[in-house]
Amino acid sequence: MLMDPLSILILGAVQGIAEWLPISSKTLDTAVFLQMLGGSREAVVPLLLYLHLGTFLAALVYFRSQLIELIRAGWQIVRSAGKNKERGSELLFFVFALFGTGLIALPLLWLSKNFLANLDLGFLFAFMGAGLIITALLLHSQKGRRQYRTTSAAGPLDGLTVGLMQGLSVLPGLSRSGVSTTALIWRGFDAYSAFELSFILSIPTVLCAEMVLWGYQLFADRSLLGALAVGDGLMLAASSAVFGYLTIGALLRLARKLDFSVIAGAFGLLMLIAGLVRLT
């Protein structure tokens, strides 16, 4: 299918903003594409891949200084046989987070592709709405917790905890940033550090997820990749990259002020009602 420029801008804006909010960007992208823009269900997977590629690039550019520091620290640790333990602990946070994510996400991805892919659209929307409501409850559970740790205090156990939670976001409706920030706040990180770690973690996570999903689709059904024109896909990636880069700083600052559980719950309720209405 071919997309018009306005639809590309709308979807880029939705992804560019929602990726940093704990309200499941893939759910909002899917809802906007299918319900508002009249897109085809076959094009959803490549659409999401291109949109997430854009916000991956936005995070890569925005956090380039932190990533360069981590790479340098890793190289120094290798050269000095284990010195610079503080940065080494932070590096292990990301390694263990990716390991935990894969441990949970890969079997759930197989289950969702084999058992959820053919659901009626009403059931799918209801399922995604329920996932968003669960995200809202998880976010609400953060309230009142002692928050005193910062980004530099992240370690392997924090990474494993976050990774195991993040793997659940493969399921429709569950937000990657929502469950990962919840896990970090449970571990005692302040809101700003939790969101910053979650955003940086999105870089290797999305990169690995893109590779797994593209590989799975090529292996399972190559025809789906032709459901969206490559030119449109690249413009979607560019659109979400621009909007993502422009909004990431502001949303990091808002993380200290807004109650995202209310936002996630409201979107979840709307999605659940929309799904139930389609089923009646």
Oligomer class? single chain
Whole-number tally of structural domains: 1
Distance between the termini: 30 Å
Radius of gyration: 18 Å
Provide a descriptive summary of the structure in words.
The structure is a single chain. The chain is mainly alpha-helical and 280 residues long. It has one domain (5-279). The protein has eleven helices and no strands. It has helices at residues 5-18, 25-36, 44-62, 64-80, 85-115, 121-140, 156-166, 176-186, 191-220, 230-254, 260-279. The radius of gyration is 18 Å and the shape is globular. The two termini are 30 Å apart. 45% of the residues are buried.
Overview features:
280 residues, mainly alpha, 0% strand
Which helices and strands appear, and what pairs or packs with what?
Elements: H1 5-18, H2 25-36, H3 44-62, H4 64-80, H5 85-115, H6 121-140, H7 156-166, H8 176-186, H9 191-220, H10 230-254, H11 260-279
Helix pairs in contact: 1-2, 1-3, 1-10, 3-9, 3-10, 4-5, 5-7, 6-8, 6-11, 7-8, 8-9
Summarize this entry quickly.
The chain is mostly helical and 280 residues long.
